[in-house]
Here is the input.
Amino acid sequence: MSQQRTGPTDGPDFPDLPEATVARLPEYLRALHHLAEDGHDTVSSEGLAAAAGVNSAKLRKDLSHLGRTGTRGVGYDVTLLIDQIEQVLGLTHRRAVALVGVGNLGHALAGYAGFGTRGFRIAALFDADHSRVGEHINGLVVRHIDDLPEVVDQESISIAVIATPAHAAQHVADRLVEAGVTSVLNFAPCVLNVPDGVDVRKVDLAIELQILSFHEHRKSALTALPAAVQKPGRVGMANRLGGEAVAT
Amino acid sequence: MSQQRTGPTDGPDFPDLPEATVARLPEYLRALHHLAEDGHDTVSSEGLAAAAGVNSAKLRKDLSHLGRTGTRGVGYDVTLLIDQIEQVLGLTHRRAVALVGVGNLGHALAGYAGFGTRGFRIAALFDADHSRVGEHINGLVVRHIDDLPEVVDQESISIAVIATPAHAAQHVADRLVEAGVTSVLNFAPCVLNVPDGVDVRKVDLAIELQILSFHEHRKSALTALPAAVQKPGRVGMANRLGGEAVAT
DNA sequence: AGGCGCTTGTGAAGCCGTGCACAAATCGCG
DNA sequence: CGCGATTTGTGCACGGCTTCACAAGCGCCT
Ligand SMILES: NC(=O)c1ccc[n+]([C@@H]2O[C@H](COP(=O)([O-])OP(=O)(O)OC[C@H]3O[C@@H](n4cnc5c(N)ncnc54)[C@H](O)[C@@H]3O)[C@@H](O)[C@H]2O)c1
Ligand SMILES: NC(=O)c1ccc[n+]([C@@H]2O[C@H](COP(=O)([O-])OP(=O)(O)OC[C@H]3O[C@@H](n4cnc5c(N)ncnc54)[C@H](O)[C@@H]3O)[C@@H](O)[C@H]2O)c1
Here is the structure.
């Protein structure tokens, strides 16, 4: 079955995969796991695309970059495709993640089960506040940030999450990079400067809301002029589009 | 000066603004507020671009869509530009936001100060768990989700944040839409189906990590072949690129 | 065994976004 | 008052992404 492939860790079988595709693969992966739980063993591109909320042609093109994955006339083998995507995303082993800043948000993240079920393991918690150091959260002890190099080395941590106030984020990022971390997920609302070879992704709640605000603003500006449905009661507004996403 | 514009709420002065630009305006806004606090009253496109972490040409093109904003030879008036961007993003009044799902993550969000400082006001908290209803968080009372239509109406809420488990998210979204909410920020790892005219943005921590994982995987695959720096000690790795982002 | 229906994989076209490079505009100074 | 330094605003070309549409391939049924 899956063993027939020429080798799991063959190495450079990356046809350098468009960035947009990479960003969607995790979405497919989640939908596939869901389908697998529901007992499906094959999916059509149409079905998977619906479950992931994308265009089916886009999905097929994305998957075509992984090599020959589907079977014409049938669809995609769910478990095989899961393996392929996890392979490409480097999720074959559970990656160790460090979380820096165990405050309001950090506590929530530390207790988040979604880490474990999606291929990651929180390997360490750090904070600069001495009164927090030593605290036990979800089976982990909060360590002082000065221990960073040591722990990063011991636990082979390459990914870190920053959940400190914005004014501390750049400093934390510098220390992370210095300790050997090469990927950072930043929750602090600020721009991080890192050397080449280090990846940074950011999550900014306020930015997301402001983008929504823009569209709200635009909607109300538009509905002000035409004979608009100011408040259609509450009929027919709900799930019109699409139907159920997962399964059928 | 600024009063000379033909009218602040003129309405359809939207040259429909590229989506990519909309997504960056909040970033500029944050950088501008930072600059204003530091006493700057004008910025060059170069300076602002550096502070926001983007290309200066891109920034100029983005801002050019807002109309005549800068002064050649001088730069941009910081406070004026802040006003313009807030205008376009619809941040002239503090928008009311509902938060549904006051669990682990919801608590953190409810206590987040960044809402207030970036143009939003948490107007209501909802949960389905009766044992949570009535709880006071940050000056707000958690209400039962059945009160949604009433409260949404009273508080003129058009934006909602979903922080419930994934299996409840679609149901919550339906009820939100039914109550009149037209923008949703979804933290639950699932696809939401909503009717036309309703905007959904999602934040999925695991997806972000998986994208980082891919790049990690690729990095280690690449450094495996050439005469690579497996572990360069810890020298010279840190802040090489760029320098300080904000001010100079 | 052969045909038929279904689904993948992909060529090609169009759109959007990015970044260079430069002309136009503005200010300050002599 | 005019000139040069400076910085904006933008025309243009290029690359990437999306989408349509269809031929090639596969399994199933007769
Ligand atoms: N709370 C939220 O819901 C939320 C939402 C979106 C974004 N954020 C952002 O996430 C970040 C954290 O938010 P929060 O509400 O948890 O803040 P917080 O103040 O509750 O927690 C910050 C933690 O970081 C620690 N810290 C400070 N400096 C540090 C350093 N140099 N090294 C290590 N640890 C350090 C503090 O001791 C504290 O425990 C902020 O940047 C915030 O803007 C928070
Ligand atoms: N905790 C995190 O750090 C984190 C990070 C990223 C994403 N998420 C996602 O955010 C969501 C919430 O995570 P959490 O850790 O806070 O979970 P949680 O179980 O602690 O909280 C969920 C809350 O939602 C409420 N709820 C359930 N069904 C509801 C319904 N139909 N209507 C209203 N409220 C309802 C529950 O009563 C509970 O209070 C999940 O989807 C999770 O995957 C969480």
Summary: The pocket of nicotinamide-adenine-dinucleotide (ligand 2) is lined by residues A 108-109, 112, 114; B 100-106, 126-129, 132, 145, 163-166, 168, 171-172, 187-189, 205 (CB under 6 Å). Confidence is low (pLDDT under 50) at residues 1-12, 227-248 of chain A. The CA atoms of residues 90 and 166 of chain A lie 30 Å apart.
